[in-house]
Amino acid sequence: MSKAGSESPDTLCDPLATFGCQLPWSVPAFAQSSDHVPMADPAFQFDPHVCRAILLGFAHARRVYLYGPHGSGKSTHIEQVAARLNWPCLRINLDGHVSRADLIGRDMLVVRDGRQVTEFVPGLLVWALQRPMALVLDEYDAGRPEVMFVIQRLLEADGRLTLLDQNQVITPHPAFRLFATGNTAGSGDSAGLYAGTQVLNQAQLDRWNVMLELGYPAKEQEARIIHARLPTLEQEQVRGMLELAWLCRQAHEQGELSALLSLRTLLAWGENLVLLEDMAHAFCLSFLNRCDVAERPLVAELYQRCFARELPDVGR
């Protein structure tokens, strides 16, 4: 921890005043920020339903798994809650390159007193476990099997981690918290939208105390998010963007469109629009160009319906 950090929560947060959700208990927090506390986004719009689940994790050490489509704000919600609580936070993306040694640690050559010696260097999981830290495991349903079985040890009742190579048992810090995010509920991806996701071990899923599906925000909430991030956009522009996003999502649900226009993509579209001052060009750069060529005429038709003008060069 940095010199400004505390080893334990030393104040309380009012969840209604801070997050807009009513809870029968206060939430512990840190009075001062430290190096690993995420930066607060003043424009972020909290969903009280999602905050309630996340705050269960922070206040009562419940293990929380959020799942849903990409760009819906799963990891960002956790980070922004941590930012308001001044709670240090570490995100680990469980892609195919993260190994057991990355999490647990490995023997490495280090220099001690001018001599090279072999020493055990702890991995990120061991490092975080011993600190007041909210650990967020991103892409949880894409983790390698050997990595998932390491994590399963943390999901036991006491959460202690045994380092067999070191004959050592790591007891979690009292302010350690565990979260995970994924695109699926652990049953795989039958639609083929999220390549690399795995069917998760049901015994492991059973050890998560809180599971919540997080979809895209309601249209009115998305509008507030866009206006807060990009206040120079006109209301009519935002209305058309949101209408197109929801039409594209409906087409995706009906199997007519493979790409999904997420909230993240909406914000990228808006940012490009501010820079280019060209709605159609910004849309092509943000979303259309990653759609399948065979599906672009459908997207162009939806765009014309929302903005009463054609997209240029569709299908090229």
TrEMBL record:
Signal peptide: none annotated. It holds the Pfam family AAA_5. GO terms for molecular function: ATP binding; ATP hydrolysis activity. Coiled coil: none annotated. InterPro entries: ATPase_dyneun-rel_AAA, CbbQ/NirQ/NorQ/GpvN, P-loop_NTPase. Residues 64-188 form the ATPase dynein-related AAA domain. PANTHER family: MAGNESIUM-CHELATASE SUBUNIT CHLD, MOXR FAMILY PROTEIN. This is AAA family ATPase.
